[in-house]
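Q: Here's a chain of 172 amino acids. Please give me its 3D structure as tokens.
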Amino acid sequence: MGLSFTVGGTKGTFDDGLAREVANLLDNAFGAEGDWEGLPPRQFGELTSTDWAELQTIAATEMGADAIPNLLALGESGRGVYLPTHVRAVSLPLSCGSLRCASLPGLRRELAELADRWDLATDDRSLLDLLRTFNDPDDGPVADLPEVLTFARLALAANEAVRRDCPLWLVG
């Protein structure tokens, strides 16, 4: 199973027991600043097992790893959460492993810088157009750039997370 970008609370994103544990962990670590549990989740597509790591590798090559700490914070496996606050990347202990956390505002800044390098827009309409174009590989200018599909899905999810003021999860 690949990764999926999910925006919303822990309920619906995880089973009930894990959802409560994750919400309590985030409350204890960051306070009750966000709606960690309640907002219904919205998914932004599933990635293959290598898409996330490819985006990270290409972005690090082009921009340097120091320029994209939030994009790299979830590691090659990509499982974790971008929180709607300015936080330093951290890994928090869970009963089933750990939860990697990074900054959603920091991620959006990094995506905007990457979009500038790739001459891409980051508004929803442009990102949706990229996804539609990608689905038509014969006519699309990004037919040979699968990392652009990952970028577009991630940027769309990040935009929605900011609008809803809630976490962006990478789960799978």
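Q: Can you summarize the key feature?
A: The chain has a mean pLDDT of 87.
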